[in-house]
Amino acid sequence: SSREKYMNSQLEVQLNEYRQLSQVLAQTKEQYKQVSSGVTERSRLLAQLTDDIETVKTDMEEKGSSMTDGSPLVNIRKSLARVKTEITAMDVRIGVVEHTLLQARMKDRSNMQRDLHQAVTDHHMFNDSY
Questions:
Q1: Rounded distance, CA 117 to CA 125, Å?
Q2: Chain Cα centroid distance, residue 33
Q3: How far apart are CA 119 and CA 124, in angstroms?
Q4: What is the per-residue pLDDT across 48-67, written as a single tens digit (0 to 9) for each?
């Protein structure tokens, strides 16, 4: 028993140091857990913010390219040119129809005058023969 007491007295310092270090280790582990969970939360938040930034960048690039992209304006100009060409073609068609109508009216008038002249001539011949 005295040997046991001697060993305990010799190891008492180391045992106390071990107990203190064990407590420090437990506290450090607890602090690590808390800090680690904070880091995990911040990492998740960082990932979310990074995704949000990428989304905003993509939107801005699309808007920027559509602002500098002149294709909608080019398409509008092409459409306007096509409409102008169609209007010109319709004007030509209208002119041809008007000309044809005028020719027909003149021909009708000429035929009416000829018929009237023929009727007058026939009438004079008919009256002269009586």
A1: 12
A2: 47
A3: 9
A4: 999 999 999 999 888 777 66
